[in-house]
Amino acid sequence: MITGAGGALAALVARLAARGVVVDDVVVAGGTVLAQPALFEAFTTALAKTLPGARARALRVPPVQGAIALARGPV
Questions:
Q1: Measured CA angle at 19 (ends 13, 22), to 5 deg
Q2: This prediction's pTM
Q3: Please, which pLDDT band fits residue 75 given cuts at 50, 70 and 90?
């Protein structure tokens, strides 16, 4: 079940890539994935198979910090 969920998440990233979105760094946030190491590992494994050039990176700051940075605009 966890392997399938990781594969489903990687498939969503692959759909974005197929639409032309650059997916070299894929930031993973939220407790559902990051609090479950097995799910994060399943996702990164599936991502490596699906999109070898993409790298999954766990977000290590509160997501709101990114929202604030985006709201402030370019530096």
A1: 60
A2: 0.82
A3: low
Going by the DSSP 8-state scheme, the letter that residue 71 receives in this structure is H
Instruction: Report pLDDT digits (tens) over 24-47.
Output: 999 998 888 888 999 999 999 999
Six-digit token string for 49: 């198979």
Angle made by CA atoms 46, 8, 27, in degrees to the nearest 5: 70
Residues 6+ apart with CB under 8 A from 38: 2
- Angle at Cα 43 formed by Cα 17 and Cα 56, nearest 5°? 60
Angle at 20 between CA 16 and CA 26, to 5 degrees: 45
